[in-house]
Sequence to fold (147 residues):
Amino acid sequence: MIQYVDMKQEHVSQVSALEQLCFSHPWSENSVAAELDNPLSLWIVALEGDAVVGYVGSQTVLGEADMMNLAVVPLYRRKGVGAALVSCLIQRLKAAEVYSLTLEVRASNDGAKSLYHKLGFEQIGRRPNYYSGPKEDALILRKEWQL
Fold:
């Protein structure tokens, strides 16, 4: 059974390894660890036993949150882990009186775009050439809710 909990120090190395696996410009282990001490950050991990099978991270300023990264171990994709992570994050943000969540997604990432649209995110903009490795536009998606 997968549990969704706040990221702790013992999860950092696994989160960093998942960053390395999933992203062309991954966060370093030190950068991930620094989020534990950042009062603006909220990172949640999906655990099966002691194994991190996914995570989501955000930073909040003045009631608005930005999703930093979302990643799921390939074997666990398309099984609801990503949706559960984002939903858990939104519930935690609502409880903290945050009223919106914004993110960037690669224009070609149809799987992620589908997930976000199913969760109620809407495209509000585009950042040309935002990503490198390969170079690509980012779509800016946002979800707002009532407190």
User: Anything to note?
Assistant: The first helix runs from residue 12 to 22. The chain has a mean pLDDT of 96.
